[in-house]
Amino acid sequence: MRHLAVVGFALLVLVGSLGCQPPGSASKADVDAISAKQDEILAKLTALEAGQKRLAAAPAKRPGPPPEDFNKVHKINTAGSPVLGNPDAPIELVEYSDFQCPFCDRVRPVLKEVLEKNQGKVKLVFKHFPLSFHRSARPAAVASMAAAEQGKFWEMHDVLFENHRSLDSSKFEEYAQKAGLDVERFKADLAKNKAAYEKKVSSDFSEGQSNDVRGTPSLYIGGKKVRARSPEAMSAMIEEALKASGG
After folding, report:
1. Helices 102-117 & 153-162, crossing angle to 10 degrees?
2. DSSP character string of 163-227
3. Measured torsion, CA atoms of residues 84, 86, 88, 91, in degrees rounded to the nearest 10
4. More confident: 53 or 222
5. Crossing angle of helices 137-148/153-162, nearest 10°?
6. I want to staple 216 with a disulfide (CB 3.0 to 4.6 A). Which of 33, 94, 98, 100 is the partner?
């Protein structure tokens, strides 16, 4: 009806544009012009209505995640997590990681350089965050915890990352041997404590989600998320965290 009203109004305008003429004096050309204009207006209105219907039927766009807050200090429970570097260092560099993540592998030399440049100031704390689409990441996390029972978490950590492109749970015993583990003890610890290891991995993952981990690796210095992952930028964050802590 709305379209008809608009068309009718358009026709009145067109007829009015012919001027004051006696009845029957409009030429056939004038009538044809009005008819053509009517068809044109109706086609445009029909297309407009179809577009409005498509917009109405389209699903509402989901709001994206809020922007990351790099000034927020997150509370991260690091008790019982593997530590690399001086355990008494005042500043924690926390890494949420996945053993199948190529980006986690690439950041390893950077983190090593940061520890070397800031000896006595910072320690690296490892937290598990196995992503669901990395099928072997969670079993690898569990295996690394069995290695930690022998004090060789970081040795196993390195071997797992060296094989991250073809990580295979059937080769964990082979990896354990390369890491210098007592393989029989590794197997026994894995069988005996698997439920506890799984619980710890799940706890790390849930805590990571609450601390705005959006992917791996996610790094935190003094509780603040790291934006720039160069040794220089992270060293500057360490100094800032030391000042904030009064160190």
Report:
1. 140
2. TGGG--GGGHHHHHHHTT--HHHHHHHHHHHHHHHHHHHHHHHHHHHHTT--SSSEEEETTEEPS
3. -70
4. 222
5. 150
6. 98
Rounded CA-CA distance 157/150 in Å is: 13
* pTM for the model: 0.75
CB 64 within 8 A of CB 108: no
Encoded tokens for 77: 């429970």
Mean pLDDT of the region 154-178: 97
Tokens 């569990």 belong to which residue? 142
Q: What is the pLDDT of residues 181-212, one digit of tens each?
A: 999 999 999 999 999 999 999 999 999 999 99
Give bridge partners of residue 220 from the DSSP assignment: 94, 225
**Distance from C-alpha of 183 to C-alpha of 187, rounded to nearest angstrom:** 6
Phi, psi of 197 (to 5 degrees): -65, -45
And the tokens for 48? 């407009």
**Residue 84: its H or E element:** strand 83-84
Name, in order, each residue with C-beta under 8 angstroms of 142's C-beta and a sequence gap of 6 or more. 190, 194, 197, 198, 201
- Sign, Cα dihedral of 23, 27, 33, 38: positive
Percentage of the chain surpassing pLDDT 90?
72
Per-residue pLDDT averaged across 10-32, rounded? 49
| Cα 128–Cα 130–Cα 131 angle in degrees, nearest 5 | 145
- φ/ψ of 212, rounded to 5, equals 65, 35
